[in-house]
Amino acid sequence: MHDLVSQPIASGTRVGAVMADIRGRIASRRLAPGARLPSVREFAQALGVSKSTVVDAYERLVAEGAIASRRGSGFYVEGTTRPLSLQSLRPDLDRAIDPLWMTRQNLSCGPDVLKPGWGLLPDSYMPDEAVQRALRDIARDPDPAGRLRYASPLGLAPLREQIALHLGARGVAAEPDRVMLADSVSHGLDLVLRYLIEPGETVLVDDPCYFNFLALLLSHRARVVSVPFGADGVDVEALARVIAAERPRIYLTTAGPQNPTGATLSAATAHRVLTLAERHDMIVVEDDCFADFEPEPSPRLAAADGLRRVVLVGGFSKTVSGAMRNGFVVARPDWIEGLIDLKLSTCHSGSNLSAQVAHRVLSSGTYKRHVEALRGKLARDRALTLARLRACGLAPMLEPRSGPYLWAELPGGLDAAAVARFALEEDVLLAPGDVFSASRSSTGFLRFNAAACAEPRIFEVLARAIERAG
Amino acid sequence: MHDLVSQPIASGTRVGAVMADIRGRIASRRLAPGARLPSVREFAQALGVSKSTVVDAYERLVAEGAIASRRGSGFYVEGTTRPLSLQSLRPDLDRAIDPLWMTRQNLSCGPDVLKPGWGLLPDSYMPDEAVQRALRDIARDPDPAGRLRYASPLGLAPLREQIALHLGARGVAAEPDRVMLADSVSHGLDLVLRYLIEPGETVLVDDPCYFNFLALLLSHRARVVSVPFGADGVDVEALARVIAAERPRIYLTTAGPQNPTGATLSAATAHRVLTLAERHDMIVVEDDCFADFEPEPSPRLAAADGLRRVVLVGGFSKTVSGAMRNGFVVARPDWIEGLIDLKLSTCHSGSNLSAQVAHRVLSSGTYKRHVEALRGKLARDRALTLARLRACGLAPMLEPRSGPYLWAELPGGLDAAAVARFALEEDVLLAPGDVFSASRSSTGFLRFNAAACAEPRIFEVLARAIERAG
Question: Where is the HTH gntR-type domain (chains A, B) (predicted)?
Fold first, then answer.
């Protein structure tokens, strides 16, 4: 087996550059085992090098065993073991702005590291007593289904009924049999993308957007295009231009307070987005995982569209628990049928235990009080954190009406990745803007989770990091 | 949007047949939106029809809007919304032998239906008391991580340490950092396939094999080839021929008592399989979810290979619980790194709650006694069920040494799908052989789960169904 990364590269030469290009395509599976390489003439033209340079590179790769020539029919990738490497799909990405590195760091760093940019709320913001009670109730339930048995294809019916009710309150009319449970919001989005797109197809995202959207789309090998998203939401003029030019198959966006900016959708924008989606036969996938943060629901695309070309995906990791992955997908009936097949074939069935916990917490008398208290706490956290950020010289893009996230620009055109590197030396893990930006145009921004910013040391470290980066 | 299924088809005509063929390719995404259709000449030749028939079919599909012609460059699939339909990937499959239908039926049928062919063990065979205790202990744990927090990238460390110990007892030497938790065995297999294969690549399975392998490979659009699997395990001569001829990228097989036959691997076969895998640069994926059923472990390919080209996937749905999906993947370190990236990008993180329950049950003093008692119960169940099957005229392929499954042939060359249809009329859901067979060569067989065969009515219904089908 060849380790493509450790092969000596004739670097600095044109032949070396061509070889490196091909190795990258093979490692990222853009050239799969057995695939035919471009002809020498085509490739020379595409790269702007001479044909002899390409011939030389191909011959050296044959000698290495990475590719093989077949008499009269060109060059082919050797059929050896070359797994899909997400890293090699974006080899140019600095780890400081790599969504996967971001997730790994946040999930694996120890308790000494402060994480003011990370998405999860602190334990004290979660309905722990209701979760404890749910676990005790499931333990003593005479029906052992939640403890022992596989879930049904759609998932626990009482939870789906609750979700349908919650959705109804946000104007999304969906019968419980159009709600399919998934193991998490990400899992729901993954199933939807798997159902609707092929590698190489174009997906449109907001810029900035939730950073794991970018990692997820990378794993689908989607072609990602983005549209500016600001204090008033998505830039609808830019949206119209990008859709007309790029013909994306899907627009992956968020409902409620957007991650990372905290901006919400207006009814006028919603109408405009749906009109464009209809005109260009584009599907909209709407991530609604922050629904319960909103005191008054902002417009949902799924509501206006009636779930014809909008798929809504949601979950409860922010308001119930992050430890027991619960998500759901709401879509038109024929798509739900196809999604069930995909779910059953790829993960067999969901977790009855997680669904039972979510159902019991949501139906407990205390959940409504919990989310109301949570909204109040987050409003106070946002106000305090905004003041502290301004004191450090940062300029918030807007003052969000709900949710934990704040999106703020560093002073003096500083690079957030550089500031984040200095902060990490002092055990503060920041979230630099370009992690969230498909076009890497948020270089000067940072995302903050106001609920994770109580510790004053965060702002001392931030101030020092800004000074060092300045 | 065009509903491909409901379009009127000029059935009975050659033009209609060509149109139906193309619609099927579009619905199953073998022809993706934007893809170029075969040239008229090529397609006419491939289907053995005249060019004018193909021209006629293409023109009608253009009129329908399913495809479009571009001047001078042929016909293309319209870029409209055509999701991946697993059903339409196998349109010829009778639902009685459709793995997806099988899973849906078993997961959704009511308590009145007896399921002697279904995989899960009855509640009374599960360590329910230990699960109840685990839930209570997690509820009162002063550390709320198992109730509230996201899991680490690899998953709960103490559970991975336990898994490493269990694997060591079966001869598989793996450090805990080579064990990655997944949400289920199926989810682990899905991640591994996603990491290692592309659509269209060839995967080899045993014939018969676990039916969800076939559904999973369908969702990956893998090309499936199979090799006969009998009372002595896989037919190694056939295996050598199939590998040489088909060059599969992966051999997906089972460790321990095979599902559905109950046969186990011998050391000699294991050596032969690994030698072939090395010679042909083939990866082996070994599903070890029945490990704890074996009193004495049979040989593991992962043990002999040292986890170089073998990936082992396991879980606990059969011996701990089916309600809280727990699985794991063990592989070489560089692959584990790539698998973590895929897991984080497609489902963000695993369930800390499920992992904590599994950890607590596995480390409870009662688990060892539980699995020992379970093995004894299953041995008695197998003996009783074998006797009852023989009394109905069925011939078991072998008498398995462990596990719940029995694989038995109907008398008189009867078709198991026909027998299953009659039995379903009396609310008994059987598992006909061809659900398990990629080549549909197990037409006369049925799988039984000896633990789910206590009810005498099953055999009364089976006897009647055999008589009616005879």
Answer: 12-80
Q: Is B184 within 8 Å of B327 (Cβ atoms)?
A: yes
**Do B199 and B326 sit in the same domain of this protein?**
yes
Nearest to A323 among B132, B190, B353 (CB): B353
What is the tens place of the pLDDT at every residue in B124-156?
A: 999 999 999 999 999 999 999 999 999 999 999
- Contact yes or no for A84 and B323 at CB 8 A: no
* pLDDT value at A446 more than 50: yes
Q: What is the pLDDT of residue A399?
A: 97
- Please tell me the distance in Å from A464's CA to the nearest CA on chain B: 30
Q: Are residues A193 and A111 in the same domain?
A: no
Interface test with A, best of B126, B147, B281 (most A CBs within 10 A): B147
Strand, helix or coil for residue B75? strand
> What's B151's domain CATH number?
3.40.640.10
pLDDT computed for residue B67 by the predictor: 82
The residue of A281, A351, A354 whose CB has the most chain B CBs within 10 angstroms, and thus the best one to mutate to test that interface, is A351
To the nearest whole Å, the CA of B134 is away from the closest chain A CA by: 8
Residues A192, A220, single domain; the answer is: yes
Short-list A372, A445, A408, A464, CA closest to A97: A445
Residues of A in contact with B100 (CB under 8 A): 341, 344-345
Say yes or no: A200 and A250 in one domain: yes
β-pair partners for B203: B224, B250
Which CATH number belongs to the domain containing residue A105 in this structure?
3.90.1150.10
pLDDT of residue B183: 93
Q: Which domain holds residue B20?
A: 14-88
Could you tell me how many residues make up chain B?
Answer: 470
One domain, residues B191 and B311:
yes
A152 shares its domain with A191: yes
Whether residues B317 and B423 share a domain: the answer is no
Q: Looking at residue A92, what is its pLDDT?
A: 58
Chain A residue with minimum CA distance to B119: A150
> In one letter, which amino acid is B303?
A
User: What is the Cα–Cα distance from A343 to B35, expressed in whole angstroms?
Assistant: 27
ipTM value for the complex: 0.84
Q: Of the candidates B79, B147, B283, which has its C-beta nearest A323's C-beta?
A: B147
Q: Average pLDDT of chain A?
A: 90
**Among residues of chain A, what percentage have pLDDT more than 70?**
93
Sign of CA dihedral A449, A454, A455, A459: positive
Looking at B343, B364, B385, the residue that finishes a domain is B364
Q: Are strands A74-77 and A67-70 parallel, antiparallel or unpaired?
A: antiparallel
Distance, CA of B407 to CA of A228 (rounded, Å):
60
Residues of B in contact with A155 (CB under 8 A): none
Q: What is the mean pLDDT of each run of 10 residues along chain B (470 residues)?
A: 33 75 73 79 86 89 79 73 64 72 85 90 96 98 95 95 93 94 96 91 96 93 95 95 95 96 95 95 95 92 93 94 94 92 92 96 93 97 98 97 97 95 94 94 97 97 96
Mean pLDDT of A154-167: 95
Partnered with residue A447 across adjacent β-strands are A407, A431
Q: Which residues on chain A are in Cβ contact (under 8 Å) with B79? A: 247, 249, 281
Domain count, chain A: 3
Q: How many contacts does A have with B, using Cβ atoms within 8 A?
A: 281
Contacts of B83 in chain A (CB under 8 A): 195-196, 335, 338
For residue B298, the 8-state DSSP code is P
Nearest by CB to residue B148, choosing from A84, A218, A323, is: A323
CA distance A198 to chain B (A): 8
Q: Are B165 and B330 in contact (CB under 8 A)?
A: no
Q: CA-to-CA distance for A84 and A384, rounded, in angstroms?
A: 44
Residues of chain B found within 8 Å of residue A144, distances taken between Cβ atoms: 123, 126, 128
The residue of chain B nearest to residue A104, with distances taken between CA atoms, is B153
- Position A341 scores a pLDDT of 92
Are residues B47 and B114 both part of a single domain? no
Q: Report the residue from A103, A148, A321 with minimal CB separation from B323.
A: A148
